[in-house]
Amino acid sequence: MSGTRVDRPIFVVGVPRSGTTVVFNTFAARPDIAWFTQHLNYLPRWPSVTVLARVTDHFPRARKSILRSDDPLRWREKARIGPVEAYPIWERYAGKRFLYESLIGERPSPEQEARLRSLIAKLVRYQGKDRFATKITGPARIGFLSGAFPDARFIHVIRDGRAVARSLIKVGFWAGTWRERSVAWRGVLGEDELARWRELGEPPLALAALQWQALIRGAREEARRFAPGRYAEIRYEDFVADPHATIDEMTAFCALPRSADPHEFLSRRVEIRDMNSPSFALSDTDGKLLDDLIGEELAELGYGEGAGAGTSGAQRLVRPFADG
User: Which residues is 83 bridged to in the sheet?
Assistant: First the structure.
């Protein structure tokens, strides 16, 4: 399509509370990556507003820091510029179903593809960058996104499902809301899984864990089918153990030149600590519940009985379907 050339966009995907924000925002500190800004979230009809992101090229301190999720936002951070997950933007350019349904195996319509390619091409141009990257939580939507961007790269951030489930039932957008009683995305859980949850008495922790498992399986299924050579996985625990090495491996996978900027950002603007330990304050009953529900998936992903530990010294980014 004339004027809509998009070169290998990068999508960081994962279940909410898996560490996608710290991983993506650090990676996106590169000087050659365009991203959705909070200004476009407010004005999704006006892609040109993202030209404001260029301010961070000249004044790095104008870019948002990454604070721990248990820290209050400092007032000055609200005025800084940084990447956002951009739900209003996706709704406008891909439709409401993109937000609220699993979209497993679905492809974009020609109209959706055209709108998305035009948008991303404009953002790259307005921000003066070479490539585009963003993060998306919930369903990975790899089939849909590959339909719009056949050369896209996908990096799946995976965190121990017990820590994720425990974190979800505590965080504000989940705890005390309808998400404790109903599936967050239509089509993620099947009737057998819902029946099992009901038999348990409908505990919110179990529902969160079952959705973690289904989202992981859905992402891997779509990756194997639509993007086997363009899909990679990293574990949150490995990023925490050695974020610098993990960022370098992500850089190589995306065929980008090594940049000092993310490493500088890590050293000066990111507060990292392993959030698995507080998340593993599980009772024996809750621990057994999660092991019964998602133990098979945990074992397949390399998580033992306790909190997942980083694999220091080993390769942190893996490509499980690259030869498929």
Answer: 37
pLDDT tens-place string over residues 229-276: 999 999 999 999 999 999 999 999 999 999 999 999 898 878 787 777
- Residue pair 212/222 in contact by the 8 Å Cβ criterion: no
Partner residues linked to 132 by β-bridges: 34
Tokens 């379907």 appear where? 321
Nearest to 133 by CA among 287, 12, 311, 10: 10
What is the distance between the alpha carbons of residues 73 and 1, in angstroms, rounded to a whole number?
A: 42
Q: Is 34 helix (H, G, I), strand (E, B) or coil?
A: strand
CATH T-level topology, domain 10-160+219-274+309-318: Rossmann fold (3.40.50)
Helix (H) or strand (E) segment spanning residue 55: helix 55-58
* Distance separating alpha carbons of residues 44 and 90, to the nearest angstrom: 9
User: CB 267: neighbour CB atoms within 10 A?
Assistant: 10
Estimate to the nearest angstrom the gap between the alpha carbon of 33 and the chain centroid.
16
SS (H, E, C) 28-77: CCCCCEECCEHHHHHCCCCHHHHHHHHHHHHCHHHECCECCCCCCCCHHH
Question: What three-state secondary structure class fits 311?
Answer: coil
For 109-163, write each residue's pLDDT tens digit: 999 999 999 999 999 999 999 999 999 999 999 999 999 999 999 999 999 999 9
DSSP string, 168-217: HTTSTTTTTSGGGTS-SSBTSS-HHHHHHHHHTT--HHHHHHHHHHHHHH
pTM (predicted TM-score): 0.92
Q: Where are the domains of the chain?
A: 10-160+219-274+309-318
